[in-house]
Structures are given as C-alpha cells and as structure tokens.
Amino acid sequence: MATRKKNSTYSRNETIIIECDLTYAVNKIGGRWKILILSKLEQKKMRFSELKKEFFYITERMLTLQLRALEQDGLVKRTVYAEVPPRVEYELTEMAAEFGPIFKQLSAWGGKHRKLVNNPD
Questions:
Q1: Nearest CA-CA partner of 35 in 121, 100, 90
Q2: Is 18 in contact with 27 (CB distance < 8 Å)?
Q3: CA-CA distance, 100 to 94, in Å (whole number)?
Q4: Residues 6+ positions from 7 with CB-CB distance below 8 Å
C-alpha cells in the first residue's frame, strides 16, 4: 500500500479531525470491511483462511490490508504459531471487544431505518 505524504492535505486534516472523540472512534473502524471483520471476530478467534471463506467477496489483498490496519490500531491481535505449515490466528483485543454493544445498537438502528426508507408507507 502506498504511503501518504505527511504534509498532504489529507494527513493534516486527519490530525485535526481525530481530536474529536467520536471522529477518532469512527476513523478506527471506518472503511468498507472493518466493521464486518470485527463483528465476525467477536464470535471467536479465526484463521486467515476462515475469514477469507466468510468474506469470499473481499480480495485477499484487501482482507490482509484491513487486518493489518486493525492490528496497527490495536483492535485485532495476530498470533503466529511456530508450526509447519505456519498457523496464524486473529482475535479481538479487549479494546475492540468494547465495540460489541455499540455494533448491536447500530445494527438495530440500521435495520429499523432501512425498513422505513425502503417502505415509507
């Protein structure tokens, strides 16, 4: 993945925006796939191949990038076992586990309002 210039407008704006607690939190879970990955890992530890089967519509590269970003942000723990073949498991950190009730509430809100928008009667 290409690195972003530290003095780019995006980078400068990002440092200002994340001073807001809500924006900081949304920035950590933002992106197309992060919430889905975190939600799936809430249930159990998973290997990369298991995650790939769950999210067959995500390319391996994108899944890898999203997992790395989540790991870098301290939301996912990656454990490598010294076996042949190597075994790697992903699990939520304690910090990420705190998102569970928030995701349930967001899901309920999304389901309710999607029905209202799709069936305005």
A1: 100
A2: yes
A3: 11
A4: none
Write out the chain's pLDDT in tens, 121 residues.
Answer: 566 677 778 777 777 776 788 888 888 898 889 999 999 999 999 999 999 999 999 999 999 999 999 999 999 999 999 988 889 999 999 999 999 999 999 999 999 988 888 776 6
Residue reference for tokens 């530290």: 6
The amino acid sitting at 22 is L
The model's pTM is 0.79
Please report, as a single letter, which amino acid is at residue 108: A
Distance between CA atoms of residues 46 and 87, nearest Å: 10
* DSSP three-state, residue 76: strand
Following DSSP, what letter does each residue of 21-69 receive, concatenated?
Answer: HHHHHHHHH-SSSHHHHHHHHTT--EEHHHHHHHTTTS-HHHHHHHHHH
Looking at residue 7, what DSSP letter applies?
Answer: T
Return all residues near 57 (Cβ < 8 A) that are at least 6 apart.
none
What tokens were used for 77?
């723990």
